[in-house]
Amino acid sequence: MEDTQDHLGMWVTADGHVRQELLPNGRYDEARGERKSAYQGNYWIKGDHIDYKDDTGFTADGEFRDGVLYHGGMIFYKENK
């Protein structure tokens, strides 16, 4: 895995409905509304590209552009706490 330090942490849609945490061990945990851990799986980052494979085998991808994550037709913003 490449250096992903800037990408680790919680990513949230503007309405807060979808929350996706990129963990340092290459795993992610995504909540949808009140449904915690709705999706979990592995991710790989290369450059500005991210690939996902959830625990059911579903695959998806996304792109980081100017500090914003575009994934699955959604726009995620990094949560800074």
Characterize the structure shown.
With 81 residues, the chain is mostly beta strands. 0% of the residues lie in helices and 62% in strands. The protein has strands spanning 9-13, 18-22, 27-32, 35-46, 49-54, 59-65, 68-71, 74-78. Strands 1-2-3-4-5-6-7-8 form an eight-stranded antiparallel β-barrel. β4 and β5 (49-54) form a beta hairpin. The radius of gyration is 11 Å and the shape is globular.
Please identify the structural class as seen in this structure.
Answer: mainly beta
Strand content: over 45%
Mean pLDDT: 93
Give the proportion of residues in helices: under 10%
SSE run: EEEEEEEE
Strand order, sheet with most strands: 1-2-3-4-5-6-7-8
Radius of gyration (CA) equals 11 Å
Instruction: Identify the overall geometry.
Output: globular
Number of strands: 8
The count of helical stretches stands at 0
Distance between the termini: 25 Å
Unreliable spans are none
State the major sheet.
8 strands, antiparallel, barrel
